[in-house]
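Re: the request from the purification team.
They wanted to know what the chain is likely to look like in 3D before they choose a buffer screen. I agreed to run a prediction and write the result into the notebook, where they can find it.
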Amino acid sequence: MAVKKSVAKVKRKPFISFLFKLSIVLAVAVLAWIVYLDATVRYTFAGKKWTTPAFVYARPLELYAGLELNAANFDAELKLLGYQFVKSARKARQVSKYQGRYELMVPAIVLAGGNEPARSVSLTINSGVVTKLSTSDRESLIRLEPVKIGGIYPAHNEDRLLVQLSEVPDTLEQMLIAVEDRSFYKHGGVSLISIARAAYVNITKGSVEQGGSTLTQQLVKNYFLTNERTLSRKLKEAVMALLLEFHASKDEILEGYINEIYLGQDGPRAVHGFGLASQYYFGKPIDGLSLSQQATLIAVVRGPSYYNPWRHGKRVLMRRDRVLDIAVREGAISENTALRAKIEPLGLGEKAAPERRRYPAYLDLVRRQLQQDYDDEDLINAGLSVHTYLDPVVQINAEKSLADKLKALSDSDGKLASLEGAVVVTRPNTGNVVAVVGGKNVQFAGFNRALDARRQVGSLIKPAVYLTALQQYKSFNLATLLDDSPLTEAEGSGWFPQNYDKKNHGDVMLFRAMANSYNQSTARLGLALGVDAIAETMAKLGVEREVPRVPSLTLGVAELSPLEVAQMYQTIAGEGFYTPLNAIDAVITPQGEVISRYPLNVIYLLRYAMETVTTSGTGKALKWLLPDFAVAGKTGSSSNLRDSWFAGFSGDMLSVVWIGNDDGAPTTLTGSSGALRVWAKLMADSSRLPVQNIPPQDIEFLWVGDNKMAKPVTCANGIPLPFIQGSTPVGAKNCTVESNKLMDAIKRWLSQ
């Protein structure tokens, strides 16, 4: 018997030893697993918590007395900013309006050029001008927050608008805790009581009424884990919740939850966090939500698809009211407050195009300019704030002007239904790009014609030809006679340019040749100057692309994009200063370096001639389309009318418009019958300052006769033209005017 007992003991010892070793291995494995999870929680949550896109903002609207501001445009921008029009403005982002007087409650905002405090603002708009402006802090100039126009997103299309806990309304925070985790400030990440309570309620109700997961567990699941329903995942979730509570404060966890929770799907874009959800569903920031709207967002937490406010309004209303009832029961709000909230409708905002699809062509330009200085990883992950020069109102006007014209053309002739177009708008004095339209489908983020459509520019090149000539002011001036007779074959090229009207005009003065866009005289001038000289002028104007140095360059055989054309004309509109076009303000700060400049007197002569284009030349329709509003510009048409162009500027805006077919098929449209009409509508809606071409000191006006470089017999038979001193035509003299009436007429003409 003793032997048998001894054998049994021997058998037990190896088994016990095995269990002991196994328990040690398992303990080490569990410990290693916990250490790994701890490191994941600690380092990830403490570092860059979210893959956050670079958010892109428009320019902030500056308000001051004397500002040219259209009331309708101002109303439109306030709506884009989420302002509510009410009878009496008392809360942030509320505005009251009576006739032309506005009362605004402006919230505190953070801007690249300095922060702006919360303030009340009173202003009056009369006849398109801010006549009065007063603020609670007696500032004479204020800036409104910029409109968020989109972002540069990660590949998986996850989007959020980060908010700090201090920005979240107290009632939203309290209701969220009451509904989702009433013991949030008592547990350590996992609540056994909550699990038991949820199980009891669900069993008694016969349906899933409550969840047992804490807010911490929900954050862990959304942030670190998947939605798989397995025991291992739940165990991992519980352990990580305990670890997160150990490393982070309750406020940090709550803020993380508010920014991470999934709250809907906007096409391919996943809407995460209450900050973005408030914009998506209600079109306003989180601190502007009513109590009813706050409860609606909390209702959506339970199931963003099932409780989708856009699709299941009645269902969401019932869940919202349930949220309010729970909040009353838990003491988060009063019963009377809840009753008032229940009366309100859902209050959804207009389901506008998502921000990322609102201005895709402009965002494309921003991205390309950002990529010159930032890595793609930073653009889609680092949460950069990019402030741009986009003017939302000008952008909307540009889109509408192009869309309306293309639709009108399509309605009048079905063969024109395939027409496309592009628009680029800049500020002449700065080179800031304020609007970009890449096609008639303004929400399409595909081919960006404003940046990538290279088309023959046609007559748009002529200012470069004439600028090349006017630089040689000893040989050329606005009155120089040019031969507009037919050309023989140019340098063996097989190129025989003709005027659009198929007529020959003999000797014409230089400014008339440009105003009427005569091809023959321009080609003769260009060939005399040399195509190399013209190409060099284009380069100095800002065209970086190499252009073909052939005789037909003189009439615009070069292929440029609308943005490249805008860059060329920017130098002309900017009084000879070359300023690189720039869409970005805050991330890439313009240095303001002047690389080169054309002589001001030469640029003045060219701008003078370009004004005649719009008053008596190919763009003379602008006299009726933009009455009493001085502008300068140039029409352009490529061979066989494949492309319709207009490029021009006022005192505060330069814009380039292109219309054509993507396949290069003829359009039947000249520059004046197509692109000019879009340009005119855009300028009428957006520009407030006529062009001002002030003559430099070395410019003198002389009277010259029509097509004669000499003093006319009488003043009535001639016109005044500007000349650089020392370049006056031989025999021309100042005209002595005896009639006061005639003198007054001349002064009026010169002042226009």
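For the purification team: The chain has five domains: 2-47, 55-149, 156-343, 397-686, 699-751.
Please add any questions underneath this entry.
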